[in-house]
Structure formats: structure tokens, C-alpha cells
């Protein structure tokens, strides 16, 4: 390996178990297996990367050959890549309260069936419950002699209810995913919540889109933190000139009440004991009191851009590591949730999330609430459905005027470059002045 | 192929038949090579070598599945499939298909596509050549080529093999804070990387200095890229027989009704040129054209064997590898959006290249409100003044019921083939 300036091998093997219960019928349930590795080599210029499956038990000679193949690929690159030095160490993976492997698939199925059945409240015509469990055994080694192995189990469930009135349908959905062990026991109330929401939305109004003051609940404000600022702060996007916050470290880009953090050490769904380049993970304050403080980096983007810390590289099994968020949240303020709604006066409260998307180069984001309430004179009024929110990152960060003290985290999956990684987002209730709310109704 | 596949598949079938009534094996092997542009230079070259086995067993109506990427572990995978079947609720089942005479070939293999770093570099160079025609910066891009080989076999005697190639390229450009993204994908070496680069850079340049638009009702032209996303999130699930019978489809119970505009027909054509072209579906059923909507009238839904047997319907050979671990589920091969063609951009309208957040559309109701990418006025067939920022809010089913006209030139976007489409009186939320 005389030619390689650096190499690393990240080998992930494991299994995925799923249960899918559809209107009381066990559609499918079972386990699949995977075993993949990514070998990266840095030649004189840039990266050669080889993804290969069935890596377990490969001989040293085979591994050498794959490394040489990666180096050969690297010769096709033109960019002179440098890697910043970064501390390397691993955190213990929090022990699950109840290891899902200690519970039989039949028992999990029975618990999921209970949650799914609970969603069938009067008015609900269709229900579906899904459970997933993924066990990853990770082994990392690099040219500097760092070696780590760990195992992490992620599991969780979702429940969907569809209610019908005549030809009119509405849906309600609840989900919870975790690294802290099996979470299926005694969760029937989440099924009921999904069912009751679907029924309630049958009578909800649609909003007439326009500019108004908006309160975001912890789930949706977490998605705001993720979409509006998290992606735009990713070092690879900054490096290629694709983010509106590039070059703005030290600038006041948001209201002073606003602090936004990405923290892979938090024992939440986006937890990583060590990043995918063997770098120690740490809490990174992206925005502190409204001032842009740090970008999220891997070793390459830290060297190229500066301003922030490495330790944010993540990769799914069989895909190369790229800069990703982990657990991203808006820090608590000192108001209560009621005070935030009261301060809104007349506007809208948006709750839950159907996801979102950002164009970081243009600085424009969009996300969709599951439902909401019109707010009049500081009080919640009519239930509304199908409301979304868009905005320009740089303008919107200044319009967050008030943060409550009730931060909660929600779990999800974030897609980038074809890779979907587990993340969590969170926030307290926050107040946005003059938000652009989308809807196509008359209310 | 590197491995002796036929003996491996045969061994799995023989072992499976001892423990179950029927067995199905899908084996796929692929290699892809690509390069990534970081701004205007190549920062990374990558190669992926992947293999996978997917086993499905049926015993007394209990369907089990499992998959592995380690062919040596096929016995554990078979055991897992059998265990999976014991958990699943038993259902009506009348057998896997036997072999059929499947004449001809579908256009999914191009011998000119040879995965290699030099070929990928040439595509990347073409992307940059095109982008240089406009005064925009390049954020990044990618170019890749792939070759895959697969076998589908079952205990009823099906043994189908296929070679498939793929070429893809994309480029993202920026001017100030105006971005432009274009891409294309084909089974053939026929994508025009120069044009992809040129289009992305044009979009970034054209959208710079956009003007505000007032909130109101306007004619809107959705490009194939924009409309394919909404159709994929809303219409495709609504056409799935499983969702229909599960009570999750807005189209349920509407067969024979005028659900969409008279100018609109929707059908799956697995034999036409597209990314999902095939002679057989993921369960080995002979693939054929399926008409879902004819002149706006709903005439059918998509079924795989499992859903068809359960509800007394016929399989439409609509199984694709969309289930857990790559198991068969209902999907589309090449969903064609068709109808009489006309001019979409003669009269003044807001043209929309792409949508930000199309996946947040409500899949059950079709309601959505999304931000527009590269919106611009268009009139007399030409681009007019760009629009800085706007949202489109509506209901996709309502929109499809009131289509104004379908444009001339169709484009392949994933498993949907569609032209640009003009809709009148759409709600735009301006800034």
C-alpha cells in the first residue's frame, strides 16, 4: 500500500427483521441478512471507493487486492483531497432496556397487532402496523491503525389509520423508533391516537395559504431545524458552494433566542458511538444565540472549509461515509408552550410532520404538517389539515421570536445521496412571525 | 457471472421443495462504476459490486420471504424464509406460474455500456462542456454506468435470465442563490450529458433575479420531472390493488367512473422502452400492457399474485421488487401518461421545472402544497420572466380531472413516462 496516502475499511454486517400487519392480517414477517464493506483509498489526488458485499472472512490477500483496485480508481480523480487531523475514540453504545432479540417474533407480532387493532376506532376503515428492527455489527479500521468494533440495534414501529366518510378519506399516523430496546409493550394508545386523528381530520377545514404568524410544535420545529439549517450546514454542501450559509461563520444569521445543535452523542435514534471515519463524535452547536458558530464536517470538508468539527461522517451499510446530521434540535427557551401560543395572537399552530425538503443553494425549504389549529386571540380554534410551510432560510431564522421550554425529540430517516440514515429531530414549541403557509382551502 | 448460478439456484429449489409446497429464487449480481464531480473536477471514483439472493416459500398458503447477499448462506436464508412463512397469516393460494413462451426481447441491455472509469469520465466531461455554455457555477455532478445479471426461478419450472445495463448522469449548477438541477437515466448509452449540463446551468441562470408573483389563480405547466413525483407519491399507490382492498385508495370502488379528464389515459407498458421494461414480472408472470385509465375512465388496478388470489382477482403481472428484502410487491414497470397532444406553452402560464417537498403530498387524499423549483412565466413557446419563489397548493386527483392539455415530448422519469402537462386555474401562493 505504498501509494495510498490513507485508506479505511468499514464493514457492516447484520440483519433486518420486519412485521407488517394490514387490517389484522399478518402480510409478512421475517428476517433478511446483509454483509457489506466500503473500502476507501486516497491516492495522490482524490478518493477511490469500492463497495463490496459478502466481506466476512475475506483473506488479507483479497483485501489487499480490493485496496489496490480502490487506488486504481483514485487515479481517475483530479481534486487534491486533504484530511484534517481529528481525535479518534469510541463511546459505549447505550445498553437497550430490553434487547429485541430476547423477545420472539411471535410476541412482537402480538404486541404490534394490539397497537394496530387499537387504531380501529369508530370511523376508521383501514389500519396498518409495521415493525422494523435492524442490527448492525460494525468494524472499522484505517491506515493510522485505528480499529473499532461495535454493535447497535435500532427498532421501532409505525401505525397508520385511514378514516372514511362517504368518498372522503383522511389518515392519521404515529411512530416511534429507538436505540434503547424493544418499545412495543403497552403502546396501544399510539394506535388509538392515530385512529382518532384520522377521524377528526374528516371534519377539518383546509387553510387558505398565505403569510401568517405560526407556532410549530416540537416535532415540526425539529424538522424545521433539520431542513432549514441542518442540511445547509453540512460541510460537503458548503465546500461545493451549494449553501447560502457558506462563509458566514460568526455572523448573526438568526434571532438571539435561537440555538441549534447536532449531537451524535445523545442516546437518541441518530446516536453514533464513533463516526464512519473513526473520528470521535461530539455535540456541535451550529447556531448559538443566533450566531452561526459551526458547520458539520468530515475530515475532508474540515480541512477544505474550516469552521466546525469533524465527527459527522455517517454511511449506511455498503455506502461511503458522507456528512450527515444525527440528533438535531433547537434548544429550549424560557417561555411555556401556552405563552408561545398566546404570543402568536392570531395565526396557526402546526403539528406533526409529513416530512420536508430543502434546496440549500437557493436557501429555500418546504415541510408539511400532519394537521394544525387556527389560533385566534391566543387560543386554539378550528382543526385544519394539509398545511405546509415554506421559507427562505436566512430570512426565516430571524423571525423565530420565541422558544418554549418543552423540547421533545422525534425519530425519522433522512435521505441524502441515495442513503437513508436514522436521525432524530427536536425542538420546543417555537413562534415564527410572518411564515408562508401553504394550503388550498378557504378557511 | 462469477458464480455458477444454475447449480446454486437448483440446490435452493430442491432443498426448498422438501420443506414447502413451492419455492421461488431470485438471484441478482451487479457492478457499477462512476465518478463524482466536486465543482468542476473529479473528486471521487467509485465502484460497487453487489450480489443478492431472495427466497420465497409457500406452504399451505403461508408465504415466507428472506434475503441475503452471501450466496454461501443460502441455507440460513431458506430457513429464515420458511420461519417467516410460519408467522404470516395463511391465505388463498393457487400456485406460482410455470414457464411461458416469452417471445422477443425488451430494450434493457446495451452492449455498448461497459462499466468503467474512463466511460464515466467522458460523461462527466460532457456534463461540464454543456454547463460551460451558460454563466453559472457547478456545485457537483455524477456519472455512472452499470451492468446487472439476474435469474428468476421457481419450483414450477420457471428459469428466466436477464442482462440489464444502465447509464446515469446529473449536474447541479448555481448562480448567486439560484440553483438548477438536471439528470437523466437510461438502459442505453443514449443520454445526452452535454444537454444535461447545459439545462442545469440554464435553469440556474434563468432563475436568477426572479420577480415575485402575487397569490392567485394561474395556468401552470408541470414539467415531467415535477409531475412524475406527484404521480409516484399519490397515483401509483392509489392504483395498487392491495391499497384498494385495504381501504387506502381514493380510487377504490370507482371502476367505470370518469375519475380523470377525458384527455388522459394511464397504462403500464412493460414492453415499451423505459427503465422498467421487462417480459416477466417479479413473480415470473408474463408481463403485458395494463390499462388503468382510458380517456379518464378508471378501468383497472394493479395486482400481484398474492393480492389477486386473496381477493379473487387476476394478477396483472404487476409484481416488482419493492417489498422487504427485495421481495415481490405491487408496482409499475413503465407507467405511461398518455393522451392527445397539444401545445402547453403557447398561452401564458407558470412553468414549473421541479418541486421541493413533493414527497410530503398526502398519499391517501392527493392534497399537497409544495414549493416550486425554477418557476418561470412561459408564453409563445418561450421562457419569459423568471419567478423568484412561489408555492403550488392543490389536490392531484382534482388536477388530473381538469387537465388542460398534454405536451408533445414525453420523458422517462424512473418508472413513469410522461410529457409536460398544462393545468388551468391552479392556486399559487406568492411572496
In short:
The complex is a heterodimer of chains A (443) and B (431). Chain A is α+β, with helices and mostly antiparallel strands and 443 residues long. Chain A is built from eight helices and 26 strands.
Description:
The complex is a heterodimer of chains A (443) and B (431). With 443 residues, chain A is α+β, with helices and mostly antiparallel strands. Chain A has two domains: 6-203, PmbA/TldD fold (2-Layer Sandwich), CATH 3.30.2290; 206-440, no CATH class. Helix content of chain A is 19%, strand content 43%. In chain A, the strands form five sheets. In chain A, strands 7, 8, 17, 18, 19, 20, 21, 22, 23 and 26 form a ten-stranded mixed β-sheet that branches. In chain A, strands 3-2-1-4-5-6 form a six-stranded antiparallel β-sheet. In chain A, a hairpin with a 4-residue loop joins β4 (124-142) and β5 (147-165). Chain A starts with 5 loop residues before the first strand and ends with a strand. The model of chain A has no long low-confidence stretch (mean pLDDT 96). Chain B folds into two domains: 5-201, PmbA/TldD superfamily (PmbA/TldD fold, 2-Layer Sandwich); 210-431, no CATH class. Chain B contains eight helices and 23 strands. In chain B, strands 7, 14, 15, 16, 17, 18, 19, 20 and 23 form a nine-stranded mixed β-sheet that branches. In chain B, α1 packs parallel to α2 (74-87) and α3 (117-131) runs parallel beside α4 (193-207). The longest helix of chain B is centred in the middle third of the chain and has 16 residues, at 224-239. The chains are: A alpha+beta (443), B alpha+beta (431).
What is the element layout, followed by pairings?
The complex is a heterodimer of chains A (about 450) and B (about 425).
Chain A: E1 6-22, E2 25-42, E3 47-53, H1 60-74, H2 105-118, E4 124-142, E5 147-165, E6 168-178, H3 188-201, E7 205-206, E8 208-216, H4 218-230, H5 235-239, E9 260-262, E10 284-288, E11 291-292, E12 295-296, H6 299-305, E13 308-309, E14 313-314, E15 322-323, E16 327-330, H7 337-344, E17 347-351, E18 356-359, E19 364-368, E20 371-376, E21 379-385, E22 388-392, H8 393-399, E23 400-403, E24 408-416, E25 419-427, E26 430-440
Parallel strand pairs in A: 7-21, 8-17, 12-13, 16-25
Antiparallel strand pairs in A: 1-2, 1-4, 2-3, 4-5, 5-6, 8-26, 9-10, 9-16, 10-11, 14-15, 17-20, 18-19, 19-22, 20-21, 22-26, 23-26, 24-25
Chain B: H1 5-19, E1 22-38, E2 41-59, E3 62-68, H2 74-87, H3 117-131, E4 137-154, E5 159-175, E6 178-186, H4 193-207, E7 216-222, H5 224-239, H6 241-245, E8 265-268, E9 290-294, E10 297-298, H7 305-311, E11 319-320, E12 329-330, E13 335-338, E14 349-352, E15 354-356, E16 367-373, E17 376-379, E18 382-386, E19 391-395, H8 396-401, E20 403-406, E21 411-413, E22 416-418, E23 421-429
Parallel strand pairs in B: 7-14, 13-22
Antiparallel strand pairs in B: 1-2, 1-4, 2-3, 4-5, 5-6, 7-23, 8-9, 8-13, 9-10, 11-12, 14-17, 15-16, 16-19, 17-18, 19-23, 20-23, 21-22
Amino acid at each position: 500500500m505504498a501509494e495510498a496516502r490513507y485508506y479505511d475499511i468499514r464493514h457492516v454486517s447484520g440483519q433486518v427483521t420486519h412485521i407488517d400487519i394490514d387490517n389484522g392480517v399478518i402480510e409478512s414477517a421475517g428476517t433478511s441478512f446483509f454483509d457489506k464493506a466500503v473500502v476507501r483509498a486516497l491516492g495522490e489526488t482524490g478518493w477511490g471507493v469500492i463497495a463490496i458485499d459478502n466481506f466476512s472472512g475475506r483473506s488479507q490477500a483479497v483485501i489487499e487486492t480490493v485496496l489496490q483496485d480502490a487506488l486504481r480508481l483514485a487515479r481517475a480523480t483530479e481534486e487534491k483531497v486533504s484530511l484534517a487531523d481529528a481525535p479518534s475514540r469510541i463511546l459505549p453504545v447505550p445498553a437497550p432496556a430490553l434487547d429485541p432479540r430476547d423477545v420472539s417474533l411471535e410476541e412482537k407480532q402480538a404486541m404490534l397487532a394490539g397497537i394496530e387493532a387499537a387504531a380501529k376506532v369508530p370511523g376508521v376503515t383501514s389500519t396498518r402496523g409495521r415493525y422494523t428492527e435492524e442490527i448492525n455489527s460494525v468494524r472499522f479500521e484505517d491506515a493510522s491503525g485505528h480499529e473499532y468494533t461495535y454493535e447497535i440495534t435500532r427498532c421501532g414501529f409505525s401505525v397508520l389509520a385511514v378514516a372514511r366518510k362517504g368518498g372522503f378519506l383522511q389518515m392519521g399516523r404515529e411512530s416511534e423508533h429507538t436505540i434503547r430496546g424493544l418499545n412495543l409493550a403497552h403502546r396501544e394508545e399510539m394506535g388509538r391516537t392515530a385512529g382518532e386523528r384520522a377521524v377528526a381530520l374528516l371534519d377539518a377545514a383546509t387553510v387558505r395559504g398565505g403569510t401568517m404568524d405560526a407556532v410549530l410544535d416540537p416535532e415540526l420545529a425539529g424538522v424545521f431545524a433539520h431542513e432549514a439549517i441542518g442540511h445547509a450546514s453540512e460541510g460537503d454542501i458548503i465546500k461545493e458552494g451549494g449553501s447560502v450559509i457558506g462563509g458566514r461563520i460568526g455572523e448573526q444569521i438568526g434571532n438571539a433566542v435561537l440555538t441549534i445543535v447536532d449531537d451524535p452523542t445523545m442516546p437518541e435514534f441518530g446516536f453514533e458511538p464513533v463516526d464512519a471515519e473513526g473520528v470521535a463524535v461530539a455535540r456541535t452547536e451550529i447556531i448559538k444565540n443566533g450566531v452561526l458558530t459551526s458547520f458539520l464536517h468530515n475530515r475532508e470538508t474540515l480541512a477544505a472549509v474550516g469552521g466546525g468539527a469533524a465527527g459527522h461522517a455517517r454511511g449506511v451499510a455498503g455506502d461511503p461515509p458522507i456528512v450527515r446530521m444525527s440528533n438535531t434540535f433547537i434548544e429550549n427557551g424560557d417561555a411555556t408552550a401556552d405563552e408561545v401560543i398566546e404570543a402568536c395572537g392570531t395565526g396557526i399552530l402546526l403539528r406533526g410532520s409529513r416530512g420536508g425538503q430543502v434546496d440549500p443553494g437557493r436557501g429555500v425549504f418546504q415541510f408539511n404538517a400532519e394537521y394544525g389549529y387556527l389560533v385566534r386571540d391566543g387560543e386554539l380554534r378550528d382543526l385544519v389539515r394539509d398545511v405546509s410551510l415554506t421559507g427562505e432560510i436566512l430570512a426565516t431564522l430571524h423571525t423565530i421570536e420565541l422558544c418554549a421550554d418543552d423540547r421533545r425529540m422525534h425519530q425519522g430517516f433522512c435521505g441524502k445521496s441515495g442513503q437513508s440514515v436514522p436521525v432524530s429531530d427536536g425542538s420546543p414549541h417555537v413562534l415564527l412571525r410572518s411564515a408562508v403557509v401553504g394550503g388550498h382551502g378557504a378557511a | 457471472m462469477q458464480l455458477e448460478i444454475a447449480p446454486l439456484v437448483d440446490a435452493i429449489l430442491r432443498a426448498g421443495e422438501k420443506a414447502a409446497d413451492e419455492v421461488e429464487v431470485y438471484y441478482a449480481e451487479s457492478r457499477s462504476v462512476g465518478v463524482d464531480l466536486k465543482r468542476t473536477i473529479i473528486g471521487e471514483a467509485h465502484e460497487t459490486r453487489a450480489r443478492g439472493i431472495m427466497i420465497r416459500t409457500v406452504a399451505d398458503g403461508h408465504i415466507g420471504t428472506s434475503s441475503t447477499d452471501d450466496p454461501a448462506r443460502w441455507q440460513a436464508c431458506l430457513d429464515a424464509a420458511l420461519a417467516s412463512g410460519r408467522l404470516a397469516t395463511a391465505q388463498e393460494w393457487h400456485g406460482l406460474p410455470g414457464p411461458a413462451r416469452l417471445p422477443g426481447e425488451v430494450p434493457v441491455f446495451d452492449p455498448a455500456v461497459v462499466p468503467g472509469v474512463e466511460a464515466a469520465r467522458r460523461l462527466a466531461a460532457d456534463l461540464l462542456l454543456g454547463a460551460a455554455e451558460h454563466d453559472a457555477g457547478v456545485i457537483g455532478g455524477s456519472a455512472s454506468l452499470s451492468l446487472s445479471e439476474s435469474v428468476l426461478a421457481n419450483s414450477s419450472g420457471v428459469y428466466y435470465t436477464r442482462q440489464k445495463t444502465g447509464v446515469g448522469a446529473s449536474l447541479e449548477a448555481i448562480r448567486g442563490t439560484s440553483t438548477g438541477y438536471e439528470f437523466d437515466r437510461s438502459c442505453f448509452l443514449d443520454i445526452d450529458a452535454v444537454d444535461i449540463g447545459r439545462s442545469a446551468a440554464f435553469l440556474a441562470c434563468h432563475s436568477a433575479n426572479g420577480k415575485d408573483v402575487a397569490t392567485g389563480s394561474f395556468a401552470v405547466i408541470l414539467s415531467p420531472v415535477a409531475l412524475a413525483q406527484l404521480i409516484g407519491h399519490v397515483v401509483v399507490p392509489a392504483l395498487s390493488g392491495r391499497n384498494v382492498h385495504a381501504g387506502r385508495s381514493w380510487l377504490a370502488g370507482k371502476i367505470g367512473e370518469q375519475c380523470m379528464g377525458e384527455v388522459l389515459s394511464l397504462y403500464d407498458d412493460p414492453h415499451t422502452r423505459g427503465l422498467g421494461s421487462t417480459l416477466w414480472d417479479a413473480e415470473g408472470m408474463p408481463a403485458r400492457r395494463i390499462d388503468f385509465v382510458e380517456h379518464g375512465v378508471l378501468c383497472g388496478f394493479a395486482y400481484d399474485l398474492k393480492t389477486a388470489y386473496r381477493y379473487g382477482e387476476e394478477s396483472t403481472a404487476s409484481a416488482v421488487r419493492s417489498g422487504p428484502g427485495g421481495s415481490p410487491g405491487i408496482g409499475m414497470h413503465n407507467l405511461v401518461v398518455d393522451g392527445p397532444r397539444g401545445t402547453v406553452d403557447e398561452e401564458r402560464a407558470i412553468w414549473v421545472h421541479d418541486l421541493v417537498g413533493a414527497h410530503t403530498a398526502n398519499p391517501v387524499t392527493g392534497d399537497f402544497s409544495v414549493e416550486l423549483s425554477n418557476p418561470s412565466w412561459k408564453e409563445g413557446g418561450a421562457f419569459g420572466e423568471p419567478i423568484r419563489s412561489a408555492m403550488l397548493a392543490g389536490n392531484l386527483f382534482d388536477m388530473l380531472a381538469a387537465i388542460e392539455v398534454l405536451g408533445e415530448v414525453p420523458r422517462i422519469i424512473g418508472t413513469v413516462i410522461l410529457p409536460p402537462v398544462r393545468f388551468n386555474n391552479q392556486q399559487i401562493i406568492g411572496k
